UniProtKB/TrEMBL annotation:
Ranges for domain HTH gntR-type: 4-72
Alphabetical list of CDD domains matching this protein: WHTH_GntR
Keywords attached to this entry: DNA-binding, Transcription, Transcription regulation
The keyword Repeat belongs to this UniProt entry's keyword annotation: no
SUPFAM superfamilies to which the protein is assigned, alphabetical: Chorismate lyase-like, Winged helix' DNA-binding domain
Upper lineage: Bacteria, Bacillati, Actinomycetota, Actinomycetes, Mycobacteriales
Entry protein name: GntR family transcriptional regulator
Natural source organism: Mycolicibacterium thermoresistibile (strain ATCC 19527 / DSM 44167 / CIP 105390 / JCM 6362 / NCTC 10409 / 316)
Domain of life: Bacteria
Biological process terms in GO annotation: negative regulation of DNA-templated transcription
Length: 238
């Protein structure tokens, strides 16, 4: 078996050091020259390792100052299952339990005949730090399965996702999630949920989940804190 390239070995070692807390968030990593001397590798090897770490969000570079550890929550998405796997290592705290309300925009996006939706508001935390505030809208035909669900009551704390709670009750499985990504300022509720000032720039991700027949079953609107979250998508050629 051929040995792994030196830059991959160095990259993985630095990533492990960051994960283990040796380099905490905002801590400057050794310089290129220091790493060359410490590990006996070339400057090109160090630069390639840093390039990979920057691309995945593990570190960030400040021109003229150096390379710094970025203690962010990193998720890679390539399937519906990846979205549901948020429950594997994050906590959901419900700030406003599932309730019936009128929302013209959400109802239109869910392609409903009336303006009534069922809405739950929550934030997610990783390692105790909030990184996203989310509003989920459900049509009546889906929401009736979840009314009375303890995990969606105000103040509830769990490791579930709404779509994960919902799908076992659906006649048809979730087949796709169409999403849009923009930048938006934090409103008062979002700012309070993630601990920033109102107006703070947030990464807004809207997802419309549909079942195998193409019928929408959930609309989620999430505002992610960019200082605490890195989003990665893998695109595959068919």
């Amino acid at each position: 078996m051929r040995p792994r390239p030196a830059y991959q070995v160095l990259r993985d070692r630095l990533r492990d050091d960051i994960a283990a807390g040796r380099y905490r968030d905002g801590t400057r990593l050794p310089t290129e020259s220091e790493l060359m001397a410490q590990y006996g590798v070339s400057r090109q090897t160090v630069r390639r390792a840093f390039q990979d770490l920057v691309a995945e969000g593990s570190v960030y570079r400040v021109p003229g100052r150096g390379t710094y550890a970025a203690d962010r929550y990193l998720r890679q998405f390539g399937s519906i299952e990846d979205l549901m796997a948020l429950s594997d290592d994050t906590t959901m705290e419900v700030r406003s339990g599932l309730r019936r309300r009128v929302d013209v925009d959400a109802a239109s996006r869910l392609r409903l005949d009336d303006d009534v939706v069922h809405t739950v508001v929550f934030r997610r935390l990783h390692a105790g730090a909030p990184f996203v505030s989310t509003v989920v809208h459900l049509p009546d035909r889906a929401a009736h399965h979840l009314h009375g669900c303890a995990e969606l009551r105000t103040g509830a704390v769990s490791t579930h996702t709404v779509i994960g709670l919902l799908e076992p009750h659906l006649e048809e499985p979730i087949d796709q999630a169409a999403q849009s990504i923009t930048v938006a300022p934090a409103d008062d509720d979002t700012a309070d949920a993630v601990g920033v000032e109102p107006g703070h720039p947030m990464l807004r991700i809207d997802r419309l989940y549909s079942d195998r027949t193409g019928r929408p079953v959930e609309l989620s609107v999430s505002h992610f804190l960019p200082e605490q979250y890195t989003y990665r998508v893998t695109l595959r050629r068919e």
